[in-house]
Every structure is written in C-alpha cells, then in structure tokens.
C-alpha cells in the first residue's frame, strides 16, 4: 500500500513538472517586459552582430522604424548554433530584447545590446535571428539631432621614455541640437561603436542626468532640459578598457551618437 501511494505521488510530481515546463518551452524569455497590447510593425534590423567572449554570448544591432507613427519597439531573438539550428535559452524558445529609445520617430533608428552566459543555452550559440516582437505607438515629441562628431585619438607610451604609440581612448566633441519649438526635458544618447572592420561591436545608452556619466561625458554649455531651438556642445571619452576584445584588437573605426528624449514610464 505504501509503495502504491509513493508511486502515485511520484507520478503526480512528474505530471506537474511536465505541465509546468510545457508553456515555457514555446514562450519567450522576458516576455513580461513587453506590454500585452504591443503589436508587430515594420522595423527592419541592420548591423546585427553576435559573438562569444569570456563565456558569454553577445548580440547588438540597430532597428529602424519604417512605420508612419512614433513607436516604442521590442524585439524577439532566437539563438542559433553553428548549423543554424535554434537553441533554447533558459528552456525558452526565444528572448525579448528592449531597444534603447522610448519613442522612435518615423524612419528613426534605435539600437539594442544584450548578453547571457553560455550556460543559459541548450548548446553553443554562434548567431541569432532577430525580428520585431511588438511595438506601442507613442505621441510625437522632440527630434534631437547630432549632425556630426569630431574625434581625436588619445595615445600613451607603452613604456616610460618610449613614443606614444598605444591607443588608449577616443575623445569626441559635437553638438546636440533641439531644432523644434518644444522642450526636450530628458535628453538621452545612444552610443554606437564600430570597429575598423565596419562592424558594430558596442551600443549603449548614456544618461546625462546620471552623475556617474560625468567621468566620460560632459555638456560644455548648460545642463538639464534642452530648450526649443537650443544647441548644446558636448564632449565624450570612449576608453578601450572594458570594450569588447574585438575592438581592442581591431581598434575603433567610427563612433556614432543617436539622441532621443526619454519618456515618462506612463507613456510607454
């Protein structure tokens, strides 16, 4: 009798585990990050780059909003092995990625960057398939512009007394412009770093309101909200320390700055 009860209990446990795992096998990791009312839109992915480094899998790229309205966009990524076979990530079929911009205007762009430990996957990922998972329409707002940046490479000697031959960082200067007759309360900057191979190896979000950014980013003339028709000078330092290994080896070829205005949580 005791054996029968134990067998029944084990059977119930197995059934429960199977029922619990079945939904996760077909759903996306971090699906809760995307609102339930998000809808697919036309938004092609470009400059997609993936690699493995220090036991982690990295993915970055750019998404362009080709719809006719402003959008907040989420992406769906399916990891693939060297044969193109889809892999599981934490037992899920795919993973939801956030793009940086809170509101992308028509024909505007926004970037994304993510990484996970190799142990999260059912195999060794070498690439991934990225498409739009959904988007939420946003109200139109300021369109911020960085028309161009000037770059200066910073060198230092590898040893004392030697010529300055080691490339340590890039020093950028440019203008952040708010050309429309409306205030941009919370300017943000997407920083895109390309290698000399013209591949995108790093994209990150910079918040000028965060005091910790002062060590690498400075507004030269003014702080806070950008007023209508205001132009503000800035400087940015990108150090090789902490960059992906490919950038350390191939060196930086280009740095692009894509600005936008952050939106309140309620408008997302």
Task: Describe the fold and architecture.
The chain has 268 residues and is mainly beta. Helices cover 12% and strands 43% of the residues. The chain has two helices and 14 strands. Strand 10 and strand 11 form a beta hairpin. The radius of gyration is 23 Å and the shape is flat. The termini are far apart.
Order of helices and strands: HEEEEEEEEEEEEEHE
User: CA-to-CA gap between the ends?
Assistant: 58 Å
The portion of residues assigned to helices is 10-25%
Class by SSE composition: mainly beta
Q: What's the overall geometry?
A: flat
- If you average the pLDDT, what whole number results? 90
Low-confidence stretches: 1-23
Number of strands: 14
> How many helical stretches?
2
Q: How are the strands of the largest sheet arranged?
A: 1-5-4-7
What's the story with the biggest beta sheet?
A: 4 strands, mixed
Tell me what portion of residues adopts beta-strand conformation.
35-45%
Instruction: Please tell me how large the radius of gyration is.
Output: 23 Å
């Amino acid at each position: 009798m005791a054996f029968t009860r134990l067998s029944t209990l084990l059977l119930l446990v197995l059934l429960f585990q199977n029922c619990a795992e079945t939904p996760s096998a077909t759903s996306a990791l971090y699906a809760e990050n995307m609102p339930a009312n998000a809808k697919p839109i036309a938004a092609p992915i470009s400059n997609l780059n993936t690699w493995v480094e220090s036991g982690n899998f990295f993915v970055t790229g750019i998404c362009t909003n080709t719809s006719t309205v402003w959008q907040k966009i989420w992406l769906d990524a399916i990891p693939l092995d060297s044969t193109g076979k889809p892999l599981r990530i934490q037992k899920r079929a795919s993973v939801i990625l956030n793009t940086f911009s809170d509101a992308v205007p028509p024909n505007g762009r926004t970037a994304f960057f993510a990484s996970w430990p190799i142990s999260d996957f059912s195999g060794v990922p070498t690439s991934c398939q990225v498409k739009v998972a959904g988007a939420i329409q946003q109200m139109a707002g300021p369109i911020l512009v960085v028309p161009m940046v000037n770059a200066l490479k910073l060198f230092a000697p590898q040893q004392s007394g030697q010529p300055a031959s080691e490339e340590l960082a890039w020093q950028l200067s440019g203008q952040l412009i708010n050309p429309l007759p409306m205030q941009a309360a919370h300017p943000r900057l997407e920083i895109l770093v390309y290698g000399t191979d013209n591949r995108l190896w790093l994209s990150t979000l910079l918040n000028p309101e965060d005091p910790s950014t002062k060590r690498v980013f400075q507004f030269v003339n003014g702080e806070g909200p950008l007023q209508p028709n205001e132009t503000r000078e800035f400087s940015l330092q990108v150090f090789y320390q902490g960059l992906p290994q490919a950038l350390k080896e191939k060196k930086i070829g280009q740095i692009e700055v894509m600005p936008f205005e952050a939106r309140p949580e309620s408008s997302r």
